[in-house]
Amino acid sequence: MKVLLSGGTGFAGQAITNLLTEQQHDVYILTRNPDKYKSKPHVHYVEWLKDSSAPEETLPSIDAVVNLAGESINNGRWNDDQKKRIYESRMEATDEILRIIRTLDSTPSVLVNASAVGYYPPSETKIYTEQSMESGNGFLSKTVVDWEKKAMLAQDEGVRVACARFGIILGKESGALPSMALPYKLMAGGTVGTGKQWLSWVHYEDAARAVLYAIENEQMEGPYNVTAPNPMRMKEFGETLAKVLHRPHWIPAPSFALKAALGDKSALVLEGQKVLPKVLEEKGFDYHYPTLHEALKNIYS
Q: In the list 73, 113, 118, 256, which could disulfide-bond 140, CB 3.0-4.6 Å?
């Protein structure tokens, strides 16, 4: 299988690339700077999003497209300019993915487009599945809603579209976990905010496997939650992390301090949703790391 991948040099993209190449699939990674990377077996780098780039002219027949591209939400403090980059980068990249799909000689069978559990409104009491139609009113919710709507336009070209609503992807070197673990490693970890907010998480290997699952299973269409089946409240998450790292859980990080330090970005850790992966479970997806303790033990083994 030949897979076209945008955002392939990021944290989730690398995990997906590794999984695909382990199974002998060919991955064509779209990047602004292909010369920065050295091609290796089954991995090819293709220039895009530059004035002179026309990736469709050099691509072979593509079976599947995975679109993860967009400005990281973890880069710097959120201000109006940063929010604009986060939003517009996703719209621009998805527009370009749609253009490439339309111009390829052979239409790919499926587009798996990144999304996020930020689609759902923050709540300490509600449980969300893919059948939950309510979306939030904040910046991240608007971004995710518009991102999914744009990706679904690929259906007009006869492409099956699955929108992967990722939870917090856990990995040792990248993503949110290193910054969450750092206070514990410094013997200063504790409850973040009230501790009652939900954290819907997923091990990076299961996240990659869930993307491949959507590629390979024709019944996977529309939004699906890429989260482990056992979300945790932030207090329990911290306590579990402390236990795995053999560190104390004792110094709290109060909400007012995080809001002062992070501004609107503090919503990433002070607000949350209890999100369950109903579609994946109903379609028979098998989690390698269904519980947080199993996931963290593997990551820090």
A: 118
